[in-house]
Amino acid sequence: MDAAMKQKVEETVLEILRSVDMVKMSEFDVRKLAGEKLAIDLSEPSRKKFVRQVVEGFLQQRLQEQQQNDAVEGAAGGGEVEEEEEEEESNNRRSDGKEYDDDGDLIICRLSDKRRVTVQDFKGKTLVSIREYYEKDGKFRPTSKGISLSAEQWSTFKKSLPAIEKAIDKMEARLS
Q1: Is 80 exceeded by the pLDDT of residue 17?
Q2: Which residues contact 133 (CB under 8 A, 6 or more apart)?
């Protein structure tokens, strides 16, 4: 991708990021929208990586802006002391309102006290992990019990959910 195209892609991605609800929008969605607007395929690995860098840069900038705002508000507040739990929670919630674990992975949901669904970046690949956790020194750490799915595997799994739900319903009907 030449410099002019990179500039167009970056501008388009940033325009999308500024105008959408970041809670509902994934990197995949942003890449797809930008590709449609520019009429180019952004799923090719080097283009995908470039879009990811733009998205991560945008999110990092937002986080820094929020931290600066928090610092200004904290200085104006006269140095109130927060409870340890509130501080821990705020450390795990970022300016985008999402919750992150101690390793910086996005917590999508908690299936139970010790099971979580997270989205993480591992060696440049986005993974959806469904994993058990254990507590050590006040922090939750992932165990080897679980599965991590690539974006492609997740997409395949997601398409199979109706068939899985139907099979569960049939099995439960037989058991009752």
Answers
A1: yes
A2: 114, 115, 116, 140, 141, 142, 143
Domain annotation for the chain: domains and CATH numbers: 1-98 (no CATH), 99-176 (2.30.31.10)
Residue 79 in 3-state DSSP? coil
First to last CA, the chain: 59
Say if CB 1 and CB 9 are below 8 A apart. yes
Q: How far is CA 137 from the centre of its chain?
A: 25
Hey, how many other C-beta atoms are within 10 angstroms of the C-beta on 13?
Answer: 27
Specify the pLDDT at position 86: 47
Cα–Cα distance, 139 to 47 (Å, whole number): 36
Give the Cα separation of 160 and 37 in Å (integer): 30
Q: Which pTM was predicted?
A: 0.46
- Tell me if 9 sits within 8 A of 42, measured CB to CB: yes
